[in-house]
Amino acid sequence: MWSVRANKLCAAYVLDIFGTKKVIHAVNEVSLELRENEVYGIAGESGCGKTTLVRLLFGDVQPPLRLMGGRVLYQVDGRELDLYSLAPAERRDLRWSFISYVPQSSMSNLNPVIKVKGTFGDVLKSHAPHQGKRELLERARQHLVELGLPPKVLEVYPHQLSGGMRQRVVIALATLLSPRVVIADEPVTALDVVVQRGVLQLLKEVQERLQNALVIVTHDMGVLANVADRIGIMYAGRIIEEASVWTIFEQPLHPYTRYLINSLPAFGDKGTRESAPGSPPSLVELPSGCAFHPRCRLARDRCREEVPEFEMVGDEHRVACWLVKEG
Amino acid sequence: MRDVSKIFHMGSMLSRIRITAVEHVSFRVGPGEIFGLAGESGCGKTTLARMILGFEEPTSGTIALRGRDGQPIVGRRAWRRAGVQAVFQNPFETFNPLRQVERYFFETVQNYGLAGNRAEALERIERALQMVGLSYEAIAGRYPAEFSGGQLQRASIARALLSEPSLLIADEPVSMVDASIRMSIMNLFRDLVDRLGVSVVYITHDLATAYYVCDRIAIMFRGNIVAMGNVDKVLMEPKHPYVRLLMECVPQTDPKKRWRAKVQLSASETEEYLRAGCKFAGRCPHAMDICKQEVPEEIYFEGQMAKCHLLRVSQGVQ
Amino acid sequence: MKTLRALLRDGRFSLGSVVLLLLVALAVLSFFSPYDPTEWRVVPRDLPPSRQYLLGTNSLGQDVFWLLTFAVRNSIFLAFLASTISRVIALAVGLVSGYSGGIVDRVLMLVNDGFIVVPLLLILVLLAMLVRERLNLPAMALLFGVMGWAFDARFIRSQILSLREREFTYTAILSGTPSLRLIVNEYLLFVVPLTMATLIGNMIWVTGMEVTLAYLGLTDVTIPTLGTMLHFALNYQAVLLGLWWWIFAPIGAAVALFVALYLLSMSISEYLDPRARIQRVGAR
Amino acid sequence: MRFVKRYLIPRLIQYVLVTFFGITLVFFLPRLMPVGPVEKAVASIQARGAYTDPKAAEETVRVLREMYGLDRGLFFQYLSFWRRLFTGDFGPSLVSFPTPVIQLIGASLPWTFGLLFTTTVLVFVIGNFTGALAGYFRQNRALKILDAAAMVLAPMPYYIVAQLLIILFAYLIPVFPVGGGYTIGASVSLSLAFIADVLKHAFLPALSLVLLGVATTHQIMRLIVQGVNEEDYVRYARIAAVRERTIFGKYVMRNAMLPQITRLALSFSGLFGGALVTEVVFAYPGVGLLAYRAILASDYNLIMGITTLSTVALTTSTLLMDLLNPLFDPRIRLI
User: Fold this and answer.
1) Is pTM, for the whole model, over 0.90?
2) I want to staple A320 with a disulfide (CB 3.0 to 4.6 A). Which of A104, A308, D55, D218 is the partner?
């Protein structure tokens, strides 16, 4: 069963830098579906629009970001809701109870001048205004125990926690109200491998406990190989290939995905890896047709002229590439 | 024959907050070798790099350097001209955003007296840029913001090569570079080592790329080198428990090799720095009493070195 | 050029520059003045503004309008000269202190903090009192310049400290660039625009101090400045006598100068701080 | 313990060093001038010798020369300056000879302190409140007008605002007295009438200080709040649908106040400078007016005394704020 559906989403940053108008097409016609009890990975390089896509799924659209088209549907308790036709108050109510967010690991996601329990209390209070302070605190404590975190973290200030612990506290905060969808944007990027593994472990555990949808956005294919069920590869604001983790790693079809997978170093194999030539395009001036064609060795005329459609090519496997379609 | 070798012997390097950043670290890098220096953030690898580059003085111990001609290098200027140059992590920060990239090339040539006139200088710059797949024409008159990250990183390498140093320090040179072109930079290092005989110290937290490119590797933990040796040996047959933990935690890019067991996380970082004995004892699944009291000694066997009491017991080696 | 156009789109900047240009034009007019500002009794006394005497005349028999042109000229000149002197000191201290660090930095910052904590007004009063008779414009500029650099030196130093940690500093060191050249090549371009913004801020301070010292009667009152004009107006009880044009002419000019300079400095520093710039974009 | 070692002790050392150096500056700067301060004072006394009692004048000159060790080296003078400083001895005033300077300052201090304390508190509360609102609700019309007003006021020197207030409220609309600390002839007592009289006299001086102080604080607070508003933790709280009221109070304000508390000492020293000028304009019987009288009479001792003590007062206020800061910022308290 699906819980979030995005249909042909388009969004752009419209900047007015002292009179010069600049439009950055960060997300172009992205369609995807998040299902109950799965980990969906979104992979892409920096500046490919993955963070913007997450903001769209979440309904966090503020200037200069603008929604240019498409819909986001939520399935909440069997009802279908169109995110962008909801009133702001309704949208707010869905936050944390239906969909929540784990931001990039950094020092600064928790208010530095209040204790961790204060932040937990504020989030709970906003969604359960009639509950008493003690009750709320008890609820927060129980939640931490369930996740295997020491409840004493509630009594300290954020700067007293290590980076890994802080990120785990944020995960606990995001899952406080048992949301059906959790979106994690680069949740382990700044962390060391050992801590990274611990944090991913926690994310996965919570997902298994809640049987909900977890979205992990990252540039690190290694992370996705380990935790994702399905993966969408983003390039220049589009998802260009989507398949199960096995298919992506074993039979990638899009030339970009192939470069990406084949250039990954692996232990026990010192064979030469080749990178894709050139470098990723700027979202301000996208190439015509398929955005990857200037770097693609197999590009044909059609690739330069028409944007390939994102089509199903196999079991749960979608690709946007003329070469695949035309054989 | 060119013979580049460096012998490090340095004692406790005290930083301002009196935490030993680098402790009794010794290693040598041979000519034409890529030497990996890997570890988590705060393990002292960057401090070590800064000491080799001469940005910081070791509290004790010495660092020696030989040029490509085999002669020992003495003196600050020579140290950087014929000795050691660096490639940094963020290519967009490597060059001043307000200045043209080419100016660094001319300054390097001029300051080290590498050319007599402008034509010679240009020729030299062109040669260095050709080696990394660029040309003078491609960089002339342009500011850093006009390049892509990959191009800038190549330019940065070319600048470092201008003075024909015997050693290149590459501090996380690809972590800020787009994933799809990362390997081309790694391949470039390999290529340069093979062609020029320059040595490279590759500093990274990423064991996978280290495995890909390095000949030998040292794993650092809290200011100590805990394991060192041939990269295949150290990483594929890890002896030290910390290296084993690291290897288990590196996300393998293959869904067939997913993680299974759980890991234990460290309490506080400062605590580990101040710990007497083996710094890893607090998290080590095999910790013994002696580990908490005595600093383990270096144990050599099967072409690798490891600092661990456990190994002495199990292997019975000196 | 691009920068100027961008800045002009900010209402505050264009308003500030228009007012400032008007004041400068007023100052330039002083070169065509029919009267010598130091002479008294050249026109009838205490006349209200009229076509002949645009801003009336004062009790000393001077034409207020033409006097004002000299006052504005001298005040702007003084402010600019004093601020330039203090910018040179601030830049030198800030650059050296920030780049060299260690003991040099500590000693310089101690001197710097000393200048920050002493009550500058009182010290200036004390010093002005001693040299009252010789306090002509350049001397005053020197005095204000020597006293008014500490705050911005600290600011420049903090900029250098963050620049020093950026990787391009190390690239320059590895390129063999000697320290002094490195500071000039790598940092000056970053610091100069900020210094310009502080220059304007400092000009406000200098003018304010000059007005205050003149009011206390500590400057050479024979030099027409905004401060000495006010000094005379108050001493001759212009308020009580209802000679409002005499007192409001310098006050109006001073207020215009302050606001114009302030608008400029706000606008420029906001332009230079990319963070504030992003916010401006986001707000639209 | 870590707090003491890493925060407290460095601050105390800094305090001692800066105070020491500041006072040293106060001592040496006048001596770098082409005209020596003591010579100047001596000359001015000798000039007056014609119409004052010549014996008293001679006596003053002698005392002064001896006190400053004029015939000895500069270093000796510096040392004796410090020695006298520690006993609170700034010598006799020249205007009201032979009343000790310290006594004159002591008499004016309560007036200045009362004025400064009240205005500093008012400025802090009002300026931060309006500034925070203006930074948080950036589209609000009324607040934009407030911004504009602050923008015009902020760069004004205290002197001009004080002068304008006098013209406005003492001459054009005479609701407040032109100056003084209390009505001349009123008996100094703690009666309600007297207190009301004092407050009435203090109103305009205080208003001029508050107006300018609020304008500056308002502008700085507005910028800080705009910055804090973009911080990750505020955005994250907003994404988590924490109530706006909580975000404004607990997330934005609490954090934006921290730099403002640090700045309080600076704001105090700004107001102090302002108070000196304002007191002169309003003939308010505080330290500023005392200093003015000293200037008119070239009373070097008195000025030195006031300047030195002000330096100590300013460094001490900075230290106090540094000591107060950890109470509000757990990151300093729990290093």
Assistant:
1) no
2) A308
